User: Fold these one by one.
Assistant:
Number 1:
Amino acid sequence: MAWVTQTLSSSLGRKVIMSLTGLFLSSFLIIHMAGNLQLFKGDGGRAFNEYTYFMTHNPLIMTVSYLLYTSILVHALMAFILTRYNQSSRPVKYAYSRPEANSDWSSRNMGILGTVLLLFIIIHMRTFWYEMHFGSVPMAEYDGKEYKDLYSVVQAAFGELWYVVLYVICMVAVGYHLAHGFQSGFQTLGIRHRKYTPIIEFLGKYFFAIIIPAAFASMPIYVYLQVHHII
Amino acid sequence: MKINLKVWRQKSSNAAGKLVEYQLDNVSEDMSFLEMFDVLNDSLTRKGEDPVTFDHDCREGICGMCSMYINGRPHGPQTGATTCQLHMRSFSDGDTIVVEPWRARAFPVIKDLMVDRTAFDRVIQAGGYVSVNTGSAPDANEILIPRSIADEAMDAAACIGCGACVAACKNASAMLFVSAKVSQLAILPQGKAEHKERAERMVAQMDAEGFGACSFTGACSVECPKSISLDHIARMNREYLGAQLTTENVQG
């Protein structure tokens, strides 16, 4: 099996690991966003609580969630390894360099954007995931069945202005990360074609870099405005 | 025109280097960038100082020897051109121009602006060839190659191996160079026979030389004097992954 480790530890193999985990995480964002749209239902959180109950009890989704946690860790760890490796490839830096003349800022700063996202994921999981699994969440009852009222946790968190601002800033980072990351993932796998690459680029630049982060950012803003009776 | 230069001076590969300032008062805007350096070196020699060492050969943009990092960009502000094709009319009177060597672990500085690019030669030696005996020139159209394939192979073959891609890349990655060579041979019938082993060996050598990984910033293609396309990098990724997954070679 030496060839497997040899392939995966080559510079191209490491990028393939980044690509596969990254594209998997991108696909997760679609599900996560679609599910969280329940927050907009205006039914006091019932649809959202039923949705979170489903997400934490369906065996298939629970299995995929472990794959998701692993992907986040592998993506971050491999990014760290690659960044160190890439930095060592140029031990003496240029005294004067103008990278902005030949490349996008986001493409050169995926590591910084990724670090912001990792910190965000930690904060995000502490606030919701940890509370849902290990915290003391109040209960809500619909049709005689007990549900954990995660909606109340959402309201408490997004009722804080600084928390809303933090979320919106982090969603901007998601946008820039995916503007480069989504299409790069395909390039790494060698998927580049005159017919399909424009579609992939369009999806990356508009759907993953603008629509998804905007939809996520609208959630804390909406809940904040609702909690404070502004809308 | 008057030009202020800040040039990287380094006595040998082990010595510490630094940027040294020079002033040239009578630079013609019709001079090429290298001719401007000839004038500088002439004045340094007359003063008994050590002239600036830099690589150059054909001075018409086809040999790939010239290699200066000018004002923060490989081969200077022009696109699709080498340093020898850059003329002083691209600059203004009184400009300060910073000139550095390519910076990469795999390209150690030999002296001043001259770097050792034999890492590229070793990558080519690892697989950038066709090892079957091709014999005498075949008759025209004996081997049919579609026009689009011929054009694409020719675009890849335009790579002059100057190393601007490595110099431009934030990771000092050689992906554009190596992929141009892999691509050129992989899509032609003569090169197809060995395409898997070629991709495996050339990538392994590229990694062994200490070039970085590809972040797909696209800087290499923008700065390439021959405007080699990023399509070739995708093709090499495909070639390499396909080869690793399907060859019988399990040695690693």
Note: The mean pLDDT of chain B is 96.
Number 2:
Amino acid sequence: MRNISRAFAFLALGFLLPVPAVSVAEEAAANSPPLPLVKVVRRDIPVTYSVPGSVISDGRIEVSSRVVGFIEQLDVREGQTVARGDLLIRIDQTDIDAAIRQARSSVTAAEEDLGDAEQDVEKYTSLARTGATATETLRKAKVRVATASATLDKARSALGAAEAQKGYATITSPVDGVIVSVARRSGEMATAGTTILTVESHEVLLFKAFISEANLAAVNTATPVAVRIDTLGGATFQGRIRGIVPSGDDVTRRYEINVILPKDARLVPGMFGRAEIRLGEQKAAVVPQAVIVNRGGLDGVFVVQDGTARFRWLRTGRVLGDDIEVVSGLSDGETILSAVGDAVRDGSPVAVEGRAR
Amino acid sequence: MSEIRLNFAGRLAQTFITSKLTIVFIIAVALMGVVAVLQTPREENPQIVVPAATVSVALPGASAAEVEQLLVTPLEGILKEIQGIDHIDSTAQNSLATVQVQFKVGEPKEESLVKLYDRVLASRSKLPSDAGTPLVQSIDADDVPIVTFTLASPKYDDYALRRIAERMAERLRSTENVSVVSIKGGHEREIAVELDPDRLQAFGVTLTQAYSAFTASNLSAPLQPTVRDGKVEAIKLSASFTSADDVRNQIVAVHEGRPVYVRDVATVTDGPPSEITALSRFSFGPGDDRGADAGMADMPAVTIAVAKKKGANAVVVANAAIDRVERMQASFVPKDIQVVVTRDDGEKADAAVNLLLEHLLVALGTVGLVLIFFLGWREAMIVMVTVPLILSITLLADLLGGVTINRVTLFALILALGLLVDAAIVVIENIHRHYGTAKAGADKQAITILATNEIGNATNLATFAVMLVFAALFLVTGMAGDYFYPIAFNVPIAMGASVVVAYIVTPWAANRWLHRHDVQEEDAHEQEASHGQPGRMERLYLRLFRPLQQSRSVRIGFGLVIVAMMLASSMQGAWQFVRPSGVGGASSYLGVPIGFLPKDNKNTFNIVVSMPENTPVEQTDRFVREISVQLSKEPEVVNYQTWVGQAGVEDFNGLFKGTAGRTGNHVAEIRVNLTDKHHRSKSSIDIVREFRPKVEAIRAAYPGAKISLVEDPPGPPLRSTVLAELYGPDDEGLRTLSAQVRKAFEETYDTVDITDTEPVDVLEHRIEPDKEKAALSRISTAQIAEALILVYGGNTLSRAHLADERNPVAVRAFVPRRYAVDPTRLDRVFVNNSDGNPVPLSELVRIVPTAADRPIFHRDNEKVTFVGAELSSTVPFYAVLDLQKRLNAITAPDGQPLRTGNLGFKEDVPDTIGGYQLLWGGEMRMTLDVYRDMSVALGGALLAVYFLLVAYYRSFLIPMIAMSSVPLGIIGIFPGHWLVGADFSATSMVGIIALSGVVIRNSLLIIDFIQDNLRQGMPLDVATRQAGAVRLRPILLTTLAIILGSAIMVTDPVFGGLAISLIFGTVVSTALTVFVVPVLYEIDAKRRLRRAAPTRAETAT
């Protein structure tokens, strides 16, 4: 009993001592400018299935020559943008021209021959009427006309074919796109069917990724997909699934999906990105990334408690745009300082907006 | 006064009375004393040798239940065979068995450990073949750091601090007698490879490849030398990582003809780890000048802990270490780093020892004043000269006997002080008296020898009785035995030395310096006898004594009053056990609580926090921060260091409580240093008591958090004050029972800091590989494991040898939190199959949510769980008995009544055959053991004294009369405790033992004088009266010496009980003894005379 009452006396003294310190702190709080605050709220954040993939082009054209010949002109370079109809390649035409000339002379010869045969038929028709010649002769003249006519047709079509070859010697771009590779150089021999260059259409870009079998059921063509491209600073593009290739790999258990990307000049095929497929929602505490400060090697925030800033060490989780998920350390409804200078330390007095004197 | 044969005392006096040897003896003893004081190691508390060791065996992948069956049970069987083992505590947890073996107190340490090693290794075959090698680790009190330095700075982070601390530690290791220098806190440099699972996947690199890329490409090997040109030339393969860039540019895989570098798939950083799981902070409190500076709060901190070698002097080692640190601070430690000594056992011991030496001097001074007052200054000086000599001999015996100078040693000396002046007083007093009464012509030297000789036998006997009584403390077993050992060792030696010195030095000095009081001889108008002139005190005594002698009714009344007072006093101690309101609850107003050892006023206390096991470390930190805000408002706090995610630097108490060395997200500790106890008016006990409700208020917001405010116990450390050990056959049942008992604890008066060993269930995602699917995808379980290890927790894949670094730096690969993979959805983790195709893990495993494996505890081969509590102001006796009443025979989980036990004087062993059992452990057990041992010691001592006296007096009854003074002491003991406001404790019990010695001595001297008087032909009544009157002065003198000598101890929280028992008991007992003993003797003598010769019976009135 005796000891306890004495102890109380000391306790009372102990409480009296810090009083001046408290009042000083309050003055400091009154003098310092109000600091902006953020309230911690738990909100729905999407549960996403993030799957990496690459941007691919839907139209990729491998240009080759039909005609065989030396490449006379090949001025485009890799990366060059071309419009539909732009000249890409010209093949040496000498052979084609010769063939046309040859065909033309064949046509002329056939025309001459046909004219001669027709005159024969005219002559023998009148003679045969008079009986001056044998009917047999007339019949033979008629056959020669038919043959000559066929020969002419043949010669004409040969000319047409030769002239058509001339069109194949100049190759123009079939699409608006970009030259992605050039395999041959001017002067090289273009053989039929070999790729000389590749043009990619940028009209439609796709994002190709593989999803695991477990998530297959959660994905259909209506599922909204956000594609984040790392190289574009994490820029996000909203796409939609064009289709799921219905045949999966039986070893890796993965299915290919193609997501149609919106038209954007920054997007280039081959870019690495992640398709974030939204599977559902989840409640989590989220704060802006900017409020996180580092004190003594720890990442955390300053929570305002009874007019003082208290440092709180946080475990941060996923990054959601400008925000960051807080996995542990903050309770719902707590107020945190949103702009923290170096002067703010644990225990610093804080004048709260609206609450300051 | 005829020429008689000299006894031991007389002969010693005769030999040394004029001898030059006496001077040599004095000088030699004094010198030895100086050597002993300087050389004997100093400690705060006596070292309690409890050999203990931990045996741990790993069995990867086994569940707790399997570990229990396969490892713990066989290990316990093996260890049980070893002699001298006290307790075996085991823990079976997932993949690991830990068995802690505690040997009995006092077992030799090295031998015990050798036995343990031998037994464990010899029985290796009894363990499963896939179990790891048993690891035996000794738990050694000598490894507990004696000095800790905390480096803290508002400018540097703990990574930088650690680097400085490492440099400082290197310079400390060479200090003499320093054993282990360790660094706690801070973070080591590492090269962190933060893997991005998505990028890995995009590059077609799997975790498995990343894993092997590191392990296979960081190699250096010396090769066989070659000989060229007649010379040997060395060859070495050198492909080690030498910088973070090496790691960054390491190739992990080749993808479509292009190499994929680590930098493509991961972020490589060099420095402190980015994801922190444990940390330490240091703050100055209001008790320090720096406490007002806001920048000096919550600084990152790193602690250097220094332990000393066994047997080395803590004071010397600590001072040497501190000196080195100070010099380092002056030379290379940056000025803005605060280096604070946060623990200094050396200084603590030195302060305790110096304070007690001071107290010893004060006690000596007061005794000296009493002597001057009673004997005159010459005589007083002679007695005072003997004291340092006796103490010197005792300390020399300590040095030779391996007893350190510690608090208990010094308390023993203070206690002995009151007793050891006695021999010299008795001798000098008798010489003094003889000088006063002897005839003028007698030879001074002969008178001196005769005077010494006269009291020789009685003094020897009395001293021997006291020695015997104190030596009985050797019978106290266990930790308390070790604790009280210095008393049992020192007091008898001091007593023995005191008589020898009294017989050698006192007559010599008296002969040289004392004058004969011829004046007294002139007015030698003796009343009844030749025993000098009765002073005022003697006259008062005689006036009080006569009625007792003459009236039978007065005697009976006196006897009744004494008995009534004895009963009343005993009731003060016993009331709470028998009172109608029950044993629980607050103490009654007049009651004296009976405890074990009261808490001590310390300069430090520890706050041990353990959150529910599923608490993230950040949440633990939040809780700790809230407590530190409270701490920063306490005016007595000098500084405090918080440890989150790990326990602080271990101390002896923590080792025993099992709180040292804990790590984990839910663990925290705050070590609080208070202002020096001499500069503060509030004791640490009160500070803690007042602080507790504040912490409790914070704790209320954190359900499941357990917090203990631990004060270093003054005596042996214990797991808990109130400890219920619950034994039972079934884990689930024990859990239910534990909750039930915990609730009962919570409902008990004064319980605080309730803890239990049942962990909270932690949700576990059990990843079970689908064997068929994995096989079809051509992936092995080992590959899955490798991948998962990197994703969850990461792994040190390799070590880089950096040029500027003394130690190799770990290269750790892990998946950082920002890419954290949800364990329920492993679709982002890929493993390459044997064809090189990546397969998502989600396709290969099943994820089963379950509760994590709970550890299974065993104690002494039975399943156990503990519930413990501390008491804020009362003693465990009442709480335990109250709980016992409520818990005994409650229905246990198996439907049978719960059996409780271990409240007897013999320790019960667990036995679960009849169902669940509750054994009371902790302080209760220790209290019972100590009281048992002390009662046995007291009983044994009294019996031995009795036999001794029977032999001396050749009578059975006279010894009983002599010993009747012992129970008289009880009258003073409990009221004394009540007046001072102290609990009756184990030291009070030691006080009773001491008291017995003292008061028996008093009555012996009275009886001896009565018999002497009778021999000189005095009538019985005069003889008894005169003996009482003559002995009154020396008895009062010795009593006063004892009271004043021990008075300085009363304020000590621990040894106060001893002083209270001794002082109040002695006062009351002495006051009554001088009446009771002569009266009883007379009654007995008369009875004997009546029986022997009825005719002579009428000589007395």
Note: Confidence is low (pLDDT under 50) at residues 1-31 of chain A.
